[in-house]
Specification:
binds S-adenosyl-L-homocysteine; two-stranded antiparallel sheet; 25% helix; EC 2.1.1.77; alpha/beta; 9 strands; 22% strand; 7 helices; methyltransferase; Rossmann fold; seven-stranded mixed beta sheet; Protein-L-isoaspartate O-methyltransferase
């Protein structure tokens, strides 16, 4: 109702507006609770304003935090994360935080997407041949798949929840990305049709490494996945497939949604 609108400024012309609605990617902005500022609803598109500048700041933060691969930074700067989140969350889209995407699932935070993408590019096979065909387990809203589509030749991404699979399709359609293939299925079984993969990346954390993932990985390829560590807490695991077997490296603690079996 009109009565509830703030008196002034009800709406600013976009030229005078901040890059995103107040609060976006500005940690110093006071939170709504107790704030004397008028509460202005975020512009629905978020974004017609100047999201490139906001992404530019996000990319600088990623670089400052240690992401150094130029292709990864360019992909993070290109893909508009705000298009993958609910309109109510648009003003948080470029903060380094995971956000709900429905059905109890989350879009991973930008720093972990960039970190994992950079790890994939470190595979021995990739160093000689570039990043060819890859498999992502856990499409979710499709954001990471879009980023991966910028750094890999071909991306197969598999999601077990039909509603999210459809949502990702909707989100990706306007981007007209032709090298990202969406599959509805149980990613615990991998996706043999696309194998062997130069890299496999999981966006959901399991209890152990599915044999199928190892089987479907190319020689010289790399798998990056959250996995339960010895104490039950999740760690990021890197597995390189070498001529002498699988070489595992345990990296930092992470916090991903669980890997589940079956399609729902
Ligand atoms: N990469 C996603 C993150 C989604 S969260 C993004 O950018 O939004 C992880 C996703 O993994 C969830 O959508 C969850 O449903 C999915 N998932 C969990 N177990 C799975 C499985 N066995 N096969 C396919 N997807 C799975």
């Amino acid at each position: 109702m009109n009565q509830r609108r703030p008196g002034f400024p009800a709406r600013l012309p976009s030229a005078a507006s901040p890059a995103l609605p107040a609060g976006a990617a500005r940690p110093a902005t006071p939170k709504a609770a107790g704030s004397p500022l008028p509460r202005i609803a975020p512009a629905p598109s978020g974004v017609g304003l100047d999201s490139a500048a906001v992404r530019g700041r996000m990319v600088r933060r990623l670089a400052d935090s240690g992401i150094s691969n130029a292709a990864v930074l360019a992909a993070m700067g290109d893909i508009e994360r705000h298009r993958f989140v609910d309109s109510a969350l648009v003003n948080q889209a470029y903060e380094d935080t995971s956000l709900p995407i429905g059905l109890g699932q989350t879009i991973s935070k930008p720093s972990i997407v960039a970190r994992m993408a950079e790890l994939l590019l470190g595979a021995p096979l990739v160093k000689t041949e570039g990043l060819g065909r890859i498999l992502e387990i856990g499409t979710g809203c499709g954001y990471q798949a879009a980023v991966l589509g910028r750094i890999a030749k071909e991306v197969y991404t598999i999601e077990r929840l039909r509603a999210l699979h459809e949502k990702a399709r909707e989100n990706l359609r306007p981007l007209r990305i032709s090298n990202v293939h969406l599959i509805l299925g149980d990613g615990m079984l991998g996706y043999p049709k696309g194998a062997p993969y130069a890299a496999i990346i999981s966006a959901a954390g399991g209890e152990g490494l599915p044999q199928q993932w190892c089987d479907q990985l190319a020689l010289g390829g790399r798998l990056v996945a959250p996995m339960a560590g010895p104490d039950g807490k999740q760690i990021l695991l890197v597995v390189d497939k070498t001529t002498t077997g699988l070489k595992q490296t345990v990296l930092e603690a992470v916090n991903f949604v669980p890997l589940k079996s079956g399609v729902a």
